[in-house]
Amino acid sequence: MTKKILILPGDGIGPEIVAEAVKLLDCLRTDFGLAIETEEALVGGAAYDAAGHPLPDQTLALAKTADAVLLGAVGGPKWEPLEIALRPEKGLLGLRSGLGLFANLRPAILYPQLAEASTLKPEVVAGLDIMIVRELTGGIYFGEPRGVETLANGERRGLNSLVYTESEIERICRVAFEIAQKRGRRVCSVDKANVLECTELWREVATRVAGDYPDCELSHMYVDNAAMQLVRAPKQFDVMVTTNMFGDILSDAAAMLTGSIGMLPSASLNADGQGMYEPIHGSAPDIAGQDAANPLATLLSVAMMLRYSLGEPDHADRIEAAVSAVLERGLRTKDIAAPGASAVGTRAMGDAVVDAL
Ligand code: ATP
Ligand code: MG
């Protein structure tokens, strides 16, 4: 059956990097017979400009009927004066909650060809391949009660609540174990169970879920130690699973170990395996429209889409191999080029990957 992919270019460099992904999808369709159809819609600042809202009803409806969504990036200085409810980022949050995308997968992979880009010593990061599984629709970002209130004495008090039900913890842990089964079979669950009762429950549920995956090994780590271990000896990790906020912080730290914001893809999945795929970087307004953005994170997001939502792991492998081959040939966009070395543009990089494919 033909799979439907919704393409959301978004803002800033979004349209440029997504155009390269569309070239790649076209190549898979015409040269490899992949049964897909694509449709494009508006989100973010582009949607606000055209329709007065960062997530038009029509876009969300299309996303719900698609098998997968490919997003460029949203946001930029142009829309910063808007009230929060109309900002481009609200479009992204609306897609996450509207599609029920509770599992955020963020790989941190160091391409051997880019080892010099890392902030760490080569022996510490060579071969780095971590998958961070972050819970995306619960935890302290959504817990009630929340807000800023004024106390009887006139002082104000800010309040947010860390809340997880057992079923929310269980389903994200299952995602982590199922991914671990296809990788190194090790899951590290990150919590703060020595201080926060909610994550004491998290630890208990993770341990229970591990019983269903006897081929995998579960370890637990407090988040402060996990942050330290990530920069001290990151290769000890295979899959890490954690709460919304801890995952937000740890995945950014892990990304920087690889030294290249333009290289890292991400996936956000719901219970039906539907997913939204996007590079981890933002809309990079400073380089938009200059054919300077690195499209590889977006192309690698297409690989994740093929693997996790479209049931085409061989095509995913093929794209990843094509990216490696292009790096091996020495092709670099500016963000991953050595200082002073020559660099190619967005389109040339995208074309090179399609050629390698
Ligand atoms: P966010 O949207 O998460 O707030 P941000 O605005 O902090 O993100 P980005 O938009 O990711 O950050 O940009 C951070 C820096 O990285 C900018 O200098 C930008 O030019 C650069 N950058 C981001 N993505 C890419 C890319 N694909 N290729 C090259 N440079 C990039
Ligand atoms: Mg930004």
From TrEMBL:
It is an enzyme of class 1 (oxidoreductase). Binds 1 Mg(2+) or Mn(2+) ion per subunit. One of its GO terms (biological process) is L-leucine biosynthetic process. It holds the Pfam family Iso_dh. Mg(2+) binds at D224, D248, D252. InterPro entries: IsoCit/isopropylmalate_DH_CS, IsoPropMal-DH-like_dom, Isopropylmalate_DH. Its main location: cytoplasm. It catalyses: (2R,3S)-3-isopropylmalate + NAD(+) = 4-methyl-2-oxopentanoate + CO2 + NADH. SUPFAM superfamilies: Isocitrate/Isopropylmalate dehydrogenase-like. Substrate binds at R96, R106, R134, D224. It is found in: Cytoplasm. Its cofactor is Mn(2+); Mg(2+). Pathway: Amino-acid biosynthesis; L-leucine biosynthesis; L-leucine from 3-methyl-2-oxobutanoate: step 3/4. One of its GO terms (molecular function) is 3-isopropylmalate dehydrogenase activity. The record marks Y141, K192 as: Important for catalysis. Keywords: Amino-acid biosynthesis, Branched-chain amino acid biosynthesis, Cytoplasm, Leucine biosynthesis, Magnesium, Manganese, Metal-binding, NAD, Oxidoreductase. Its EC number is 1.1.1.85. NAD(+) binds at residues 76-89, 282-294. Homodimer. Catalyzes the oxidation of 3-carboxy-2-hydroxy-4-methylpentanoate (3-isopropylmalate) to 3-carboxy-4-methyl-2-oxopentanoate. The product decarboxylates to 4-methyl-2 oxopentanoate. NCBIfam families: leuB (TIGR00169). Belongs to the isocitrate and isopropylmalate dehydrogenases family. LeuB type 1 subfamily. This is 3-isopropylmalate dehydrogenase. It comes from Halochromatium glycolicum. The lineage of its organism: Bacteria, Pseudomonadati, Pseudomonadota, Gammaproteobacteria, Chromatiales.
